[in-house]
Amino acid sequence: MPRxxxxxxxxxxxxxxxxxxxxxPALDLARSAxxxxxxxxxxxxxxxxxxxxxxxxxxRVLDIAATLIAFGLDTDxxxxxxxxxxxxxxxxxxxxxxxxxxxxxxxxxxxxxxAADNVAQGRDPDHGVGAGLYYYPVLMAAxxxxxxxQAVPVGRDQRQHVEIARDVARxxxxxxxxxxxxxxxxxxxRVMTVPGLDGRKMSKSYGNQIPLAAGPDEIRxxxxxxxxxxxxxSEPKEPDTILExxxxxxxxxxxxDLERRYREGGVGxxxxxxxxxxxxxxxxxxxxRRHAELMADPQGLEDTLARGAARARASxxxxxxxxxxxxxxxxx
Length: 332
Description:
mainly alpha; Tyrosyl-Transfer RNA Synthetase
């Protein structure tokens, strides 16, 4: 298996959609790989939105690190680091940006969405758009290309970031020779888009998420909010948000049985919600306990991130040196 890389932005409490759509596939891929996998907490990227206080950002970084370890990341075999602990990324971002077409960044989803919203509100397209938001696809490309990552596990809505990284690598290689590895996106076809409590994609921006830190009572309360129709337990039902989430968190045989009962009739929505809440609790409970233990030892987490950063810097250094030599930077 090729070396893989996964980054997670520390912008709030991780939720079930983050786990099912990105964390679990990335951990599965890391376990199946012959070599190491890289996981980083993208605190540079967090600055493109309202970051809060310095203390809040640092706390969120540790929260993400603890979440990954709690769900099974082996930090001896794999590399876990904080993005801002790699100064090589700043240099590489600038160099790559100098050969990146501006039009490529104009087409990035985040910038296009911000510009479209401004136009809809009758404002200048670039109103309130920071240079970091516009330029962050180049930083994301540097994150990937620095480590010569061949496979980048992403959700379907994040595929464009890897496509941009591919284009950035090709642009540089056309200008300076075959220096950079062109990566591939890896999308887990089992979980493409995780539905939230309202049926839309699970997202903090919609307020429809189930936090990974939620306890059993909170999980049950949130699951009870899933909107259903008025069909009686005896009536056949079409697969819905409850069943889709249950299939993502429960054993396949249990999910198949619930789908059969849906289609044949014989299960009410209240029972289905109870089954879903129980399955989510079974999934999250062990990781929740481990996460609490890790967060109680922040220095231990800092030490883990520092060890990972040293390994990540060693990984990135040859790429940065090759880029410097190809472009003529520094002394011969």
